[in-house]
Specification:
Two copies of one chain form a homodimer. By secondary structure, chain A is α/β, with parallel strands linked by helices. Chain A is built from twelve helices and twelve strands. In chain A, α2 links the parallel β2 and β3. The first copy, chain A, is globular and about 60 Å long. Chains A and B meet through α8 and α9 of A and α8 and α9 of B.
């Protein structure tokens, strides 16, 4: 495997179950996928985790000491600057300096995004990085971009999200000609806000030029039906969509559990089997649980694992980081950047 | 019952199952709730429906002839004007002229909203009417306002939605002190778009003055958790939320059906029972199925029934219209209109 030389940088101190589950998940990924792991965090705590897992002298794992921890109470916009020796900040600096191929963190999403932008930096020409979760659709999933990184967007940001999402879906999700849709409140071209209408025209141009496979406007329900592979929207709307899907999924599971409980007397064994399968369904529905979420537009691969990730979920996030590294997404973005810009001199001044 | 004298105007020709299921549902509501019904539509077709239901000479039902039908292909913004003798247009004119207490239609949502605004008109001082569906939360439901009527909104519109939603939740949904939340991408006051931040300040003022019970920002997942009774947002975001919830619900049911099918050999009887119960769950999840959706801000009660409503669902919509009429929502909006306006002279000029 070409993975043999890959080194994944793991922020081992962030997330609800850090460092225990993070270390356990990272170790299992290292063994299973044949990669090296650098655990970043408080050395004593990490040594103790390695001991618990019988991996003190494992050749594929090393520790990089970092004394501080960024938690959910830290202000996302200043956290990586103010806590320069946090596990997250150190991990991102290592990624910037080429001391690993990708970084994975289960920490504060906003802090990780700000840190990635400030430390690792955006790809030249990319205006905003995007948070790109995969939502369930019964198949390979639907990529939502942006899922919440940039609240206020311009049409150019959305054009860039469309290209980046399309490249990611093709190379990481294995979707040969990703169908790209613009999230709107109806399918007609004239629908939506000013942002929607202007962005529609840009995406249509890119589609007509054969650079993306733009299928037009899509609605909230299309996300889960398999009718579209990449859904483009601003980060505000994307966050509402993501949280709504999570909330609806949780509500649904609760109702089904209640339903199963109420009839458990008649069919307790099959009820128990069903309950177990429902847990699997919950995982399928909670996009963040399965693998992690990529930040797109950053110069090197950064993956956000779910804050509540256990060892299994964190292992999946490391696996996703490996797939991301092996794909040529970032290179493809760099090579196509001229098609992703509006070439407005005023906008150039405000770029990186 | 004080309902004895109420007269509900029914657009009998709109909807996927018109006129058969509409007439059947309206008749069953008339008998069950003791109200009079006017069926608006093509006289021959409606007479034939009455014959089928053995209700030709029923004292509680009358027919108002209307020759045209507005369908899903008509342009919503011009439909009621261009088809002046459509069942929808005639029903709305009857409502305006006091020939009934409420109108119920399963027709084109946009056409019904435009027609209600142009024919029945908005309450004096109300800038925009809102579409206010009820979403499932395990209890009395969460009112979403606006669910898609006004795509581009000002803070004043959102302030008005908050008041109208609060009055409706209190009087129609039986929620004594409705918790009103502003939909946002996080709970902090500083979150969201410019529209969110300005609206937050207005809602906070109204809350501090004791006029609404404002609980601050809420997120997409809070809608289904029972943590909030009225969720205020612009119509674009509201539409995305509504469609996402529908899509996620449909996806979930499909997955569960698959799961049940795969284990049906072992527990087929209990599986069959479960399948039946799942249909009930689907109804609970599809907000539009249970009752109808109120248009708030219009001078008289207009209820939108689901386009796919069968007799049972249409009957529920008529029931909801009756509850709406018996509540003092419209009067309460009129009495509080001075607290719902920004008193900006420029805005006054663009008002109704």
């Amino acid at each position: 495997m070409s993975n043999a030389k890959l080194k994944i940088i793991v922020d081992a101190m962030s997330g609800d179950n850090a460092p225990g589950e993070i270390v356990k998940g990272a170790l299992s990924a290292a063994q299973e996928f044949g990669v090296d792991i650098v655990l970043v965090g408080q050395e004593d705590a990490l040594q103790s985790c390695l001991r618990e897992n019988g991996a003190v002298n494992a050749p594929y794992v090393s520790i990089q000491n970092a004394t501080e921890i960024i938690d959910m109470h830290d202000d996302p916009s200043t956290a990586t600057r103010r806590k320069g020796d946090s596990s997250m900040s150190v991990a991102l600096r290592m990624l910037r300096d080429g001391e690993g191929d990708a970084a994975v963190s289960a920490g504060n999403t906003g802090a990780l995004l700000t840190g990635a932008t400030l430390i690792v930096k955006r790809i030249r020409g990319i205006r905003r990085a995007a948070f790109a979760p995969v939502l369930p659709n019964g198949g390979a999933g639907t990529l939502l971009i942006d899922g919440g990184a940039s609240v206020e967007c311009t049409p150019e940001y959305l054009l860039q999200f469309a290209f980046m999402g399309s490249f990611y879906a093709k190379q990481v999700m294995g979707c040969p000609q990703p169908r790209v849709g613009l999230l709107n409140n109806g399918s007609e071209e004239s629908k939506g806000t000013e942002l929607c209408r202007t962005s529609y025209a840009l995406l249509r141009q890119a589609g007509d030029a054969g650079r993306i496979n733009f299928i037009g406007n899509v609605e909230g329900n299309d996300v889960f039906s398999g009718a579209v592979d990449v859904v483009v929207t601003d980060g505000f709307t994307g966050n509402i969509l993501l949280k709504t899907a999570e909330g609806m999924g949780a509500f649904f599971l609760q109702q089904i559990r209640r339903l199963l409980a109420s009839q458990s007397t008649g069919a307790s064994e099959s009820g128990a089997a069903l309950k177990q399968q429902l847990s699997g369904l919950r995982r399928a529905v909670d996009a963040n649980e399965v693998g992690g979420t990529a930040f797109l537009g950053i110069r090197r691969p950064v993956i956000k694992a779910h804050g509540g990730a256990d060892a299994r979920a964190f292992r999946s996030s490391v696996k996703q980081a490996i797939t991301f590294v092996n794909a040529d997404v970032i290179q493809e973005i760099e090579e196509n950047i001229s098609y992703m810009r509006l070439h407005d001199p005023a906008a150039d001044q405000t770029g990186e």
